[in-house]
Amino acid sequence: MQPFIQFESVSKSFGSMTVIDSLDLTIHKGEFLSLLGPSGSGKTTILMMLAGFERPTRGTITLDGMRIDQLPPHRREMGVVFQNYALFPHMTVAENVAFPLEMKRLPRHEIARKVARALDMVRLGSLKNRRPSQLSGGQQQRVALTRALVFEPRVILMDEPLGALDKQLREHMQLEIRELHKRLGLTIVFVTHDQSEALTMSDRIAVFNAGKIEQIDSPHAIYDTPRTRFVAQFIGETNLIEADVVNVQNGHATIALGADLAAKVRSGPELQAGQKALFSLRPERMRLGAEPAGDNSLGMTITDCIYHGDHMRVQLARGNFTFTARCERLAGDWTVGTQVVVSFDPRDCTVLTS
Amino acid sequence: MSRASARERMGALLLIVPLLAFLAVFFLWPLWTMVRASVVDNTVSRVLPRTAAAIVSWDGQGLPPAQVHKALIEDLRQAEDQQALGETVRRLNSAVSGFRTLLTRTTNAVRDETNSGAIDLGDLDRRWKEPRFWLALREAVPPYTDRNLLAAVDMKRDAGGAIVSEDPGASANRLIMFRTFLVAAIVTLACATIGLPYAMLAAAVTGWKRTVLLLAVLVPLWTSLLVRTTAWFVLLQNEGLINGALQVLGITDGPLPLIFNRVGVVIAMTHVLLPFMVLPIYSVLLSVPRNLMQAAASMGAGPLRAFWRVLLPLSLPGLMSGSLLVYMVAIGYYITPALVGGANDQMISSVIAFYALGTANWGLAGALGVILLLVTMILYFIYGRLSKSPQLLGA
Amino acid sequence: MFRTAQTFFGLLVVTFLLMPIVAILPLAFTSSVFLTYPIEEYSLRWFVELTTADAWRLSIMNSLIIGLGATLLSTVLGTLAALGLRTKALPFANLLRTMFLLPMVVPAVVLGVGMQMLFVNLGVASTYPGVIIAHAVLCVPFVIVSVSASLQGIDPSVEKAASSLGASPVKVFRRVTLPLALPGIISGAVFAFATSLDEVVITLFVAGPNQRTLARQMFSSIRENISPTVVAAALLLIIGTLCLGGLAALLRWRQERIALRAAP
Predict the structure, then answer these.
(1) Could you tell me if B299 lies within 8 Å of chain A, comparing CB atoms?
(2) Range of the domain at C231
(3) Thinking of the domain A239-352, which architecture would CATH place it in?
C-alpha cells in the first residue's frame, strides 16, 4: 500500500513539556487506524496536528506527498468529529450539515441534494429542521458524523467520538461507523482510550505511551503478540511474570518461571539462553483440568473463584507463584483448596526480552 | 403539601417579610408617591372642598346653581392656610387672568364681619356673572389631572378640552426626551463597537492576558463613578491631558472643545458603561465550546467566515442583553451629563432634578419620572426575558 | 498582521479603560490650584485641606456613618431574605427576587424624587435615619445577589449530611450553612458599603446640609469650583474601593478554593 499520510520525526512541545517526541507514523489510504493510549499519552495531540489546530514544533507531515503541516486547518480538507460533537447550536441539523458545502461554495441546489442524501443515509432526514439541543446524544453523534463526511474530505479524524454515549448505543455506533468505512472506502484516524473499541473497529492500532508509539499493528497482533510490557498490560488482561530463558532449540524455548516451574514457549530468533525475560500469558488461554495435557502442565491450587456471569475468574497459586485464569465454568466439586492442573499451548505464550 | 414543607414555607416567609416590608415602605411607596404627584391635583379642591363637591352637578351651561355660590362663599370664609389659598389663586389666575383680583376681592368681602348675611356674588363683582370664570373653576377642582403628563410631552388641553401640542418654544421636554434617547443610543452603539471585539478577544486569549483584559474592565467597575467622572472632567478640559497631547503631537493648534458638549458626555458615558457591555458578551462567549471554531475550520471555513457564521451569531444574545443594559442605564443617567455636559446635553434625569430640586414643581417632575420609569421597566422586562436571569452585573 | 491588530486593539481599549483613573491621581499631589499637567511642585496641601476644612471633614464623617448604617441595615435584611428565597417551597420566589433587585434598575433620579416627597411627609427628610434608609434601599440588591450566589454554591448534601449526623436544623444553620455563606455575606456587605460611599443622586434629594456625604461634596465642588481637593478625595475613594474590592475578590477566591476542595 502507498503511504497516504506520513509523520516524519514530528515533535511537539508546549513550553518546556514535550508531548510528542520525534514520531514517525505512516497512515495508508482507506485504512481505519486507531490511536490508543491512556490520557496524556499524546494521541489527541497527533490528531490536532493532523487537523491543523496544532503545529509541530519539529518535523513534517505530508498528505499524498504534499507537505501539510504549515497549512491552516480550513485548507486541509479533513473531516473532524469532535468528542463533544461541536455542533453549531444556532443552526438546524440541515444547516449544520450544509455548512462545509457552503464553505466550498457549491451551488445551492447541489447543497440541498447532498444534505438530503447524507441525512437519509444516517436516517436523520425527518429531524433536519431540529436544533442540536433537541436531539438525543446518539442523534447528535450521527449529525456530527454526517457533517464530517458530507463534503467528501480526504481523511476523517475522530476524537473519542463515542465517549459520551452509553454502552449499548456505543456498540451500535461502532458497527455503524465500521460499516460506513467499508462502504465508502474512507481513511479514518480514530482516537480512543477504550481498547475494546479499538480492537473491534480498526485495521491497525497504534498504541501510545508518553508521546511515543509502543507498537503499531493489526488488532490481532497487538493482542496476541504484544511487543512491550506496556502493550501487554494495557491491552486486555495478562499474567506477567519475570522469568529466565533456560534453553532455546528448534523454534522453542524453555523458560524458568520460578524455582520448580518451567514452561515451553514458541521462540523467535531473538531469544537466547541465559537471558532475563518477561513471560506473558492471557488468562483465557489457560485450561484447568484434573490431568496433565499438552506441553505445559502445572499443578496448582485454587485460592479464589470470582463469578462474572459469562465466565469465572480463578486465582491459582503454587508457593508464592500466582496465576489468574479465566474459564467458562468449573467442574462441580472444585472449590477453594482443590488441586488442579493448569495447561496452556506454547503458541499462546509471549516472551518479551527488553 | 406535607406538614414539613408547609413549615419550611412559613419559615421562608418569615425571613423574607422584613425586607419585603422595608422595600414596600421605602421603595415602592416613594415611587407610588411620585406617580400620584403626577396625576393628583388637589391645589384647588383642598382649599375649596365644598365648591369642588357642588360644582360637579353643574352641567356647564349658563351659570352654576345657587348652591355652588353658597359653597364657594363658605369655602372662602373657612380657608385658613394662606399659602394654600395663594397657590389656588395662582393656579386659577394662570387659567383665566383676572382671577387673582376677583378672588382677593371676593375673599375680603365674604370675610368682612359686616357682611354676615346673604351675599350675592354677582352683585359683589360682575365677573361672577361671566361663565368663563366658573368654567375655569370647574376645570380646576377635579383631584386628578392629566395636565402634568401632557406637559411632560409638551402637550396641553385647549379651552374645549381637546389635547393639543404646546406652542413651539414654550417647552423643550420633547426635545430633551429625544436627546436622551439619542445620546443613550450613541453610547450603546459606541459600547457595542468597542465591547464586542474586546469581549471576543478576552474570551480567545488565556492566562495572564485574559486576566489583564478582564481586570481592565473590572477595576473601573469597582472604582467610584464620581472618581471616573472627575477623571474625565480633568482629562477633557481645555488644559487637560488629551488636548495637551494633541497639541504636543501637532495634530491640533488650539484646544479642541471636548468638555461641556456632546463629545465629552459620550466619551465619559461610554467609559462608564463599557463594562456592562463587555461582561454579558464575555460570559456568553465563555459558554461557547472552543472547538466550534475548530470544527468550522475543519470544514473549510477561513477565520473571517468562521467568525461571521459561527462566533458572531453565537455572541448575539450577549450583545443584545449588553446593549439593553447599557441603554437602560444610559437613559436614566444624571451625574455624568450634569458634570461633563453643557446646557444642551442635559438629559431627562437632569430635567426631573431641575423641576424637583429647583422649582419644586412636583407634578411635572413626577410626570417626567413616570415616563422614564415606564421606559426603564419595559427595557428591564425585555432584558429579563432575554437573559433568563434578572441579575444585573456589578456583584 | 491580524495578531498585531488584535494586540493593538486590546492595548488601546485597556488604555481607554484605565488611563483616566491612573492619569488623574498624581494631580492630588500638585501644589497648584489648577488640575493641569505638568505638575511644577508636589505637596500634600490638598490632603491637609481634605482633612481640616470643615465641609470636607464633615462629609468624610458623614460618609462613614451613613455607609456603615446602610451596610448594616441592608446586609441584615438582604441576608435574611436571601436565606428565605433559597427555600424551594416559596411561592412567587422569582417575582420576589425580581422585586428585590429592582432598586438597582429604577433610575436614581426617579427614586430620589419619590423619596423626597414621601420623606418630607414622613418627617425623615434631611435626617440621618432618612439618608441611611435611602442608601440601604440601593444596597439591598447587591447583598441579595452576593449572598444568593454563595448559598447556591453550597452543596445541599453537606447540610443533609450534617442533619444525618444528628444536628438540629438550627445547628445545621449555625455550624454549616452560615460559615459556608459567610464569605458571600461579607462580600455583599462590602458591595453595599461601596455603593453607599459612591451614591450621589439619592443623597441630593433626601439629605440636608448636615448629611452631606463625601460623594455629594465632591459632586458640588466639581460643579461649582473644582480644586485638587476633589482629586485627593478621589484618590481616597479609589484606595478605599480597591481595598474593598480586593477584600471581596479574596473572599470569593477563598470560597472557590473551599468549593474545589470539597469537590470529589
Answers:
(1) yes
(2) 46-262
(3) Beta Barrel (2.40)
Which grid coordinates belong to C30? Answer: 500638585
- The answer to whether residue C9 is domain-embedded is no
Those residues whose C-beta lies under 8 Å from the C-beta of residue A55, and which sit 6 or more positions away, are: A49, A69, A70
Instruction: Kindly state whether B287 is in contact with chain A, defined as any CB-CB distance less than 8 angstroms.
Output: no
**Residue ranges of C 181-210 with Cβ closer than 8 A to chain B:** 188, 191, 194, 197-198, 200-201, 204-205
- Report which DSSP code applies to A91: S
What is the side-by-side order of every strand in the sheet holding A17-28?
A17-28, A3-14, A58-63, A66-67
CATH 2.40.50.100 range(s) for chain A read 239-352
Q: Report pLDDT digits (tens) over A85-96.
A: 888 888 899 999
Asked if B314's CB is within 8 angstroms of A90's CB, the reply is yes
Confirm whether C41 is domain-assigned: no
What's the ipTM? 0.89
Among A119, A101, A118, smallest CA distance to A110 is for A101
Note whether B132 contacts A: Cβ–Cβ < 8 A: no
**pTM (2 decimals)?**
0.79
Closest CA to A246 of A279, A267, A275, A281: A275
How many angstroms separate the CA atoms of A329 and A336, rounded?
Answer: 14
CB-nearest to C87 from B9, B34, B234 is B9
A325: cell is: 485464569
pLDDT in tens, chain C (264 residues): 677 888 999 999 999 999 888 888 888 888 888 877 778 888 888 888 888 888 899 999 999 999 999 999 999 999 999 999 887 767 788 888 888 999 999 999 999 999 999 998 898 889 999 999 999 999 999 999 999 988 888 887 788 777 777 777 788 888 888 888 888 898 899 889 989 998 999 999 999 888 999 999 999 888 887 888 888 988 888 888 778 778 777 877 776 666 555 544
Q: Is residue C240 part of a domain?
A: yes
Mutate to test the interface with C, among B13, B27, B374 (most CBs of C within 10 A): B27
Chains C and B touch (3+ CB pairs under 8 A): yes
Which residue from A73, A76, A103 is facing B305, i.e. has the nearest CB?
A: A103
CB of C163 less than 8 A from some CB of B: no
The count of CB pairs under 8 A between chains B and C is 258
Calculate the alpha carbon distances from A73 to A47, A69, A76, A308 in Å.
Answer: 12, 10, 5, 47
- C176 located within any domain: yes
Number of structural domains found in chain C? 1
> Domains in chain B, ordered, with CATH?
1-29 (no CATH), 44-141 (no CATH), 173-387 (1.10.3720.10)
Query: What 3-state class would DSSP assign to C70?
Result: helix
Give ranges for CATH 3.40.50.300 in chain A: 3-234
CATH code for position C102: 1.10.3720.10
Cα–Cα dist A179/A176, whole Å = 5
| CATH number belonging to domain A3-234 | 3.40.50.300
